[in-house]
Amino acid sequence: MPRKPLPSLMLAGLFAALLSGCAKQTPKEPTPMTPEKVEPNTLLKPAAAAKPRVALIMKSLANEFFKTMEDGAKAHQQEHAGEYELICNGIKDEEDVNGQIEIVNQMLAQKVDALVIAPADSTALIPVCKKARDKGLVVVNIDNKFDDGALKKEQVSLPFVGPNNRTGAKLAGDYLAKQLTKGDGVAIIEGKPGAFNAIQRKLGFEDAMKAAGMTILTSQSAYWETDKAYPLVDQIHNKYGAKLKAVLCANDSMALGAARALQGKAVKVVGFDNISAVQSLIKEGKVVCTIDQHADQIAANGIVHALEILKSGETPGDKETPVDLITAETLEKK
Amino acid sequence: MPLVPNPRSEIRKPTSVKGSLLDEGGPVRVVPNPKSKIQNPKSARGWRASLIDSLAMVGVLIAEVVAFGVLSDRFLSADTFASIVNQAPDTLVVAVGMTFVLIVAGIDLSVGSVLALSQAALGFCVVREGGLGWPLGLGIAACLGVGLLCGTVNGLVTVRWALPSFIVTLGMLEIARGATYLATNSRTLYIGSVIEGVSSPIPGAGALTWPVLISLATVAAGQMALSMTAFGRHLIAVGANEEAARLSGINPKRLKFTVFALCGLLSGLAGLIQASRMSSASPNAGEGFELEVIAAVVIGGTSLMGGRGSVVKSFLGVLIVAVLRAGLFQIGAPEYAKRLIIGTVIVLAVILDFYRGRLGRREGRR
To answer: ipTM score here?
Structure first.
């Protein structure tokens, strides 16, 4: 009967909340700062003898993109089960920065050898990653690049493995521009304000639209969500009417909402991320194109990068992963 | 109505206690006669005060429309209002349920997650690839059933262990969201044209769509239940003073349970309406929806302390927020400005409620 387990579940939840409340204080404690005195070789030798343990820390696993990323990483680990161990973690939602810092601390306590992290915030996660580096861990930044200025200020360099969002958005914008005529009005639907990839995608869209001589009528945020994009796009269409020829969305979830709001109207929609729901819309001709960042490979590439560093102990460079344009034709080929 | 055991004495007595408690809290509040604060819905002066409240809210709405009409050249168009009307139904139906919950001094934080879970159930049942491929009717039944189930659990747990609904529904917020991720495998389910018929215009009724009709009917039924039936007056009595209501022969547990179950069912209905509008079920649907609904209901003058509320005014509250959002979208306000303005309007509306409540009471005494 459901009666008895429920209170205990709630108790467990409360307990967890209390625990995380206590643990949150740890980052505030002064950490032994020994900047740039790390010698990963010597520090890592004992661990390298056994199978290295890699912690993959992502953003929200409720997001299809990160879910795919996790699946890709797990598949990679299974193929290379003899080479390393993998611990996967994700946060509640994409804004849960504190939660992610907490996970990094937990992984430090777990004494993993490498951290592969898709930071929820491009600056807020730097101090804790620096702490991990100072303790001798290999830290690889994936998906969402740390802010260069903040990295310099903290005097750390963390290798980045991931796609270039701006290039991807430009690719989609260029493809769209071919179907428009010079001077046409377009709208950009942005991701969450302040998110690095949201900004990069917006810039990429702008690059393409400016290069093709289009007029950007408005650029507003729908916080990555379908149900927030629908009313926004609806009102933008009401405001600009026939002047609006295309809507460029910084992710596919928002493209879904935009396509539905513009159903039956002569306005083109562009997305980003290549989620399965949007593939159906591309086939139906309701969305022009999207961008595939090969989410399944991003984390795996980051892990491979981390393992190489563990082996060689050399200071590595960044590694860009591919972005591909997905249109009705490319989907047909598959 | 004859079903109420001596309504004059039993119901107004507890509410007047409530009123005086509230009045002690406000530093500048001078209420000469706290007894008249609660309006007996049947009395003429209650209706008059209520009408003044509603007119004040309509005034705010008109002010918004005029302001955006000046600021944006194309705001005053049939398209704009058609869009607003088409957006509103999901918020509206849940606002009706939330009004009832707030009246019995409860709160339901799980509505957004329950909306998403119902939607996910719908998608899972109807979608062919990766789903069950059932006919739409069964999908709709599953959608509403899941909503009702979640509401029932909220109600049962709250009533059985006499727990604060805040924490029970907070738990449900997490549980339903987790279940949504599980059911959708964290992926957006594209339902496609099968579901679009639900939000299409009703044949022979012009641009009127099913969701709009359903939501208006829900508002009408909700307001009638609240002000014209014993059930409604019992709710107000329980919210104002549960112990007094119980002593006068009302069963507060059953009423509370009913209200939470109803709110869950209406969240499921909202999930159906939203899914049909989006043609898809998103695992992140309805994130923050609970706060949007609560804000609209509170703007409508429903008290978070219970014992006071109106469905029609919640309806106006939903419209006030909807028009505001639409206008801000059209003028392309920067993100920080949107949030600053919406937050300010919520607080101003509640302050206004304080004054119009006073006005209504004074009016009532004459």
So the answer is: 0.75
